[in-house]
TrEMBL record:
It is a multi-pass membrane protein. PANTHER family: AMINO ACID TRANSPORTER-RELATED, INNER MEMBRANE TRANSPORT PROTEIN YBAT. GO terms for molecular function: transmembrane transporter activity. This is Amino acid permease. Keywords: Cell membrane, Membrane, Transmembrane, Transmembrane helix. The chain crosses the membrane at residues 7-28, 34-52, 97-120, 126-145, 157-182, 202-226, 238-264, 284-313, 334-354, 360-380, 401-424, 430-450. It comes from the Bacteria. Its main location: membrane. It comes from Aminipila terrae. GO terms for cellular component: plasma membrane. The keyword tRNA-binding does not apply. It is found in: Cell membrane.
Length: 475
């Protein structure tokens, strides 16, 4: 990783993560369909889960300055020692995290196309694969050109994009309450589906819903990824994480509340256009709708950038730890993981041809839950040793009880969320989403085997070179 330490302000780190609230867009209809107005509470609880997990990641971020975010922590802690299984698990945690973030560009490129075709009907005459490739090329290569020049340029671009995009998103959610078009009875009279009971089936379903929510509502851990690079890591990482969490809490609740209050539960579930687009039509005229579409698309580009940075840094971290082929750890002259970015572009180009973001989201959520679960298990292992040694570092020191809180959330993530996600995927799309997730996650095995061979070959080669030098010196 490039040495950009002490150059990043917490505001710049925050700006990269502020694209995260846009992750609610693919799930507004989905959550309303299953949970009605209770979906508002689901988002709130999930954001609180994010606070618990992300504060733990903040502690590890400052204590492990050489690790690259959540993937780096898991590899450093779970993969430490001589155990081959522990090393594999640490690497698999990072791979799962990469899969949690990696498909987001494809998901939101497809969403951009949905917004464009939903308003500009003429675009429906163009074959969808052509639109996917056209929009995908513009977005992916535009971000590649910007991000390849380093983190500070990416942070500045993200700062500008998010200031432009986040405010209109909030405005669209707030205006209906000011104008009086929001009817709170649509929430209070439709609190939860009448057939919902706390039997075994619905409890598993609820775990699946919260697993889907975690994929978007907890994703602001990216503010901790660059913890060691802040000017004052101990204070700045907490400022970035807490401020981003507060923003997410307000925006997620406001957006879901506004959609249901204006459109009603039935209106959201039966919407033929994205709910946020319908909100814009209720609140503004034709010109206002066009401006809203532009603002939302800019916001989507922002969250694509957040994912692009997070996923490429995850892959780079794995290569540096020798859990992926070394070529993926290559940095360009700006110190950015360019090869990892290229692989990510190839992945998302392939996913574009699936044409449906919902299946990609469902599969990606499995990877993200595994990553968070193993990430929390790694935190528990580290925190337990830290508590036992009565060791307070110069970084972030959460209360000792955070060890047990972390263990609870680790168990919730893995296995409970995984079971729930598999179940809810089976209800929506058969087994296709789960199969996609399993196949991509299992691809790690041959890559890990190759990287193991590469690592051993490198060790043998270095030993041969050392022996040659010894013989030359002797002669």
């Amino acid at each position: 990783m490039a040495n950009n330490s002490k150059k990043l302000s917490w505001v710049a780190g925050l700006s990269i993560s502020l694209g995260v609230p846009m992750l609610i867009l693919p799930s507004i209809v989905y959550f309303t369909d299953y949970m009605w107005a209770f979906s508002i509470v689901v988002w709130g609880i999930s954001i609180l889960q994010g606070f618990v997990q992300n504060l733990a990641y903040a502690e590890m971020a400052v204590d492990f300055p050489d690790a690259s975010g959540l993937p780096g922590y898991s590899q450093k802690i779970l993969g430490s020692g001589e155990s081959k299984l522990a090393r594999f698990i640490g690497g698999f945690s990072a791979w799962s995290y990469w899969f949690g973030w990696g498909p987001i560009p494809a998901i939101f490129i497809l969403s951009i196309v949905e917004f464009l075709t939903g308003y500009f009907n003429q675009l429906n005459d163009i074959p969808q694969p052509v639109l996917f490739l056209l929009v995908g090329t513009i977005v992916l290569f535009g971000l590649f050109i910007t991000d390849r020049k380093g983190l500070e340029n990416s942070a500045m671009a993200g700062y500008v994009l998010n200031i432009i995009s986040l405010l209109p998103l909030v405005v669209l959610a707030v205006i209906p309450f000011i104008s009086g078009s929001a009817d709170l009875s649509n929430i209070t009279n439709n609190w939860i589906p009448p057939d919902f009971t706390l039997d075994f089936k619905h409890i598993i379903l609820l775990f699946g819903i919260f697993g889907m929510a975690e994929w978007s509502a907890c994703a602001w851990e990216t503010a901790a990824v660059y913890g060691p690079e802040y000017r004052n890591p101990k204070k700045d990482v907490l400022k970035a994480i807490c401020s981003c969490g507060i923003v997410c809490l307000v925006v997620y609740i406001l957006v879901q509340m506004s959609c249901i209050a204006v459109l009603g539960v039935d209106g959201v579930m039966n919407a033929t256009q994205p709910p946020m687009l319908l909100l814009a039509k209720y609140s503004f005229g034709r010109v206002g709708v066009i401006l809203s579409i532009i603002a939302i698309i800019v916001a989507m580009v922002s969250v694509i950038q957040t994912a692009f940075l997070g996923a490429s840094h995850a892959m780079h971290s794995m290569a540096i730890e020798r859990n992926l082929p070394a070529i993926l750890g290559h940095e360009n002259k700006y110190g950015t993981p360019q090869n990892a970015m290229i692989v990510l572009i190839i992945l998302d180009y392939g996913l574009l041809f699936l044409g449906k973001p919902s299946a990609i989201v469902a599969a990606s959520a499995i990877g993200y839950s595994i990553a968070n679960g193993l990430g929390m298990y790694s935190y528990v292992k580290y925190k337990k040793e830290k508590n036992k040694a009565l060791n307070k570092t110069d970084g972030v020191n959460l209360p000792r009880i955070w060890c047990w809180i972390g263990l609870i959330f680790a168990i919730i993530d893995v296995p409970l969320y995984i079971i729930g996600l598999i179940y809810i995927n089976s209800l929506d799309a058969g087994w296709s989403s789960t199969i996609v997730a399993v196949v991509i996650l299992l691809l790690y095995i041959p890559l890990y085997i190759y990287s193991t061979y590469e690592r051993k070959h490198s060790v043998v080669k270095s030993q041969v070179v050392s022996a040659v030098h010894v013989n030359d010196n002797h002669n």
